[in-house]
Amino acid sequence: xxxxxxxxxxxxxxxxxxxxxxxxxxxxxxxxxxxxxxxxxxxxxxxxxxxxxxxxxxxxxxxxxxxxxxxxxxxxxxxxxxxxxxxxxxxxxxxxxxxxxxxxxxxxxxxxxxxxxxxxxxxxxxxxxxxxxxxxxxxxxxxxxxxxxxxxxxxxxxxxxxxxxxxxxxxxxxxxxxxxxxxxxxxxxxxxxxxxxxxxxxxxxxxxxxxxxxxxxxxxxxxxxxxxxxxxxxxxxxxxxxxxxxxxxxxxxxxxxxxxxxxxxxxxxxxxxxxxxxxxxxxxxxxxxxxxxxxxxxxxxxxxxxxxxxxxxxxxxxxxxxxxxxxxxxxxxxxxxxxxxxxxxxxxxxxxxxxxxxxxxxxxxxxxxxxxxxxxxxxxxxxxxxxxxxxxxxxxxxxxxxxxxxxxx
Length: 409
Ligand code: MN
Fold this sequence. Notes:
There is one protein chain. The chain is an alpha+beta fold. It has two domains: 15-246, Phosphatase 2c, domain 1, CATH 3.60.40; 287-359, no CATH class. It has eleven helices and 17 strands. The protein has helices at 51-65, 73-93, 140-146, 152-157, 194-197, 202-211, 215-228, 251-284, 327-335, 343-367, 378-381, and strands spanning 16-21, 31-36, 39-46, 100-101, 103-109, 112-118, 122-127, 130-133, 163-164, 177-182, 188-192, 235-241, 287-292, 295-306, 309-321, 338-340, 407-408. Strands 2, 3, 4, 5, 6 and 10 form a six-stranded antiparallel β-sheet that branches. Strands 1-12-11-7-8 form a five-stranded antiparallel β-sheet. Strands 15-14-13-16 form a four-stranded antiparallel β-sheet. Helix 1 (51-65) packs antiparallel against helix 2 (73-93), helix 6 packs antiparallel against helix 7 (215-228) and helix 7 (215-228) crosses helix 9. The longest helix is centred in the middle third of the chain and has 34 residues, at 251-284. The chain is globular, with a radius of gyration of 22 Å. It starts with 15 loop residues before the first strand and ends with a strand.
């Protein structure tokens, strides 16, 4: 294993947000994600009896252990091949044939972006208000759409929509697709599992990325919307804001970044402690949101009763009206519930709704003054064609010859 190199100090720290959620239907969350700058990756595992969780976890952890430091597609490809072998070995040892995972991984170095792609998780780039899918799915649906056999709309509801044609964990000769791009400061990268892209249309995703400034909030809203749309699968997103190349760098800031490293270590310890605490409180109290008389309400417990005894009780009626919410979320609350891990999570979600409503109100009032403004973001982007640096170099090599592992994620 290579010695772990220090973080490149002549780059600005990109800000990011991430979230993963089990969704509304599945028993396990088989998705995994890793944020280990400059590496960012999502993986969507498959295989029964929790094997998918193991596969996706091994894939992202192996990738992170390779200690990638530059946006070099060859290094990234080798790391993904390493991760493939790790999943195959684990499947063999544990007698879990059929265990596999997708992997969409990005390494960002200043304004260089390297991406490796296996399966049907995706990378999208938002550039000057326009979102573009960077990766090509390795899925039966993508093949059929390209062959002109079905339309995108038909693919969305096709019974075989989750069959993938390439994955980690089966073929030792598996090769990832590789993409190498120039991106610009201000661009936003989205990595997601198919639990997002099958529940939301691209323009819904684009809208959320455009109007939500904070990347963590954008990640949360994307997941909330996918849940509101039904949450049929696990949902995982990483939103990364590209900061670009640093113009000046002094010795002083390098030194500061060492203190930064200490701070990060402390934060990591705090997060680990928080996760432990979270696991404890989950068993103590879960909660859910629903709507009553047009208001969002919070219940503590589970929406069930045993021998006539209710297992939940009303915690409080919030001041959020469902009419102020995005239609998808409002519908979900009115017709059912949104489960969360704790009362705190319920309050956080309500707070998020309140912020969203406030932001919406703000953008509504600024939109009316927009015609006199200089036409930022979405307005001018479409015509600037050649200015768009986000052209993927395209899939590398062996495509249709890929192992048809036929897994579903
Ligand atoms: Mn999935």
